[in-house]
Amino acid sequence: MKSRITICVLALWILFAMAGFAAVQVGEAAPGFTATDSNGHQQSLAQYKGKYVVLEWHNQGCPFTKKHYESGNMQRLQKLWTSRGVVWFTVISSAPGTQGYVTAEQENDYLKRVAAAPTAVLLDPKGDLGHLYGAKTTPHMFVIDPQGRLIYDGAIDDKPSTDASDIAGAKNYVSDALQESMAGKPVAVVATRPYGCSVKYGQ
Amino acid sequence: MSVGIQFEIDSGWHIYWQNPGDSGEAPRLAWHLPEGVTAGALEWPTPARMTTAAGTDYGYQGTTVLLTSLQIPASATPGVLPIHADLHWLVCHDVCLPQSAQLSASIRVANNEAVNAHAGGLLQSAAERIPRPWPGNYHLDAHSFPDHFQLEFEPAEPPAKAEFFPAEVEQIDNAAPQELVVGKEAKLALKKSEYLRTEPEHLKGVLVLNTKTAYRIDVPVGRTSSAGRRESK
Prior knowledge:
The complex is a heterodimer. Chain A is of the alpha+beta class. In chain A, 22% of the residues lie in helices and 20% in strands.
């Protein structure tokens, strides 16, 4: 038997840059940052001391990101946790000209269209915040506790696929970390291998 | 009987190996087979290492064939057996596109032997790109150190280059250089993954020597020094 599959796609541009990540360490202080959100406001980690903060690396064109948005999973998590006082930052580190790069206006249109509910979307086209945290994939999730300590770094869940039907049976590491920490328990899984598309950093 | 699934991938794009590495996703195949027919595991050709700004992936460019085998029961009546499969895969350049296809083919069953006139050349050249088993008469061993694993082996000729592809995720650091030292035996150091949580019992994957000969290996990981050296079976 011979099954021929021809994949026709539009070739875009190639980007190569050297990897150079400052690793963040679970259990230690999460590195501080200030970034501009899609409404033009300055957001800093320091101003949310005393609250849990979730960082979600995002690229709206990435099939792994789409899995969690087209299913409504990410919006559900955003609504659930922000309603419990958690600050949720969606972070976009795609460089201009790469997949996922958006202007503030485009991002605000997208948020409305998909009914996303993060606290704010941080625009990081130079990749500073991405490199500071060593964000590798979209999605890549970080959870910071009210003392400013990093308590989780890794995948959104334990089903590394683009298949939305995997979400129902998946163990969501972000919700688990928040739940356990809020209950005063140690976080059972503090770091996992993030899965998704590579973050589209510039040169 | 052998079955091959051929991907023809546009220049500059790639699909992924069974372990995609730091990003991406392996192709997924779900068979729909007539009663009594069963499919074996997928056999993957030797992958290539692909490094981007965000990490190192394992996959394929150009024409790639995944192989498997179908077991046709001896009791199958002569005639045509339809087989179907749902295939999902991710193809990436600097962006990724999820793709899917429903594959169909017919197997002619004659005299209790499955016969297909078309497949010979394709399947044969595909089989040559599947890693071969490690020859049992050559030593192969693995040891765990605090920050790395070490593969120790005595191939027929000292290798000038060796490269290991881990079949399992979260075992070795995909982007780290693999240092080869060749003395009486060859030693290849594999930096442990930052996501390694429990020590693996085995290191499984593909060991490529001198960038041409690929071996499929599955070697128990020893936690002591090489004093009690094990011969591979």
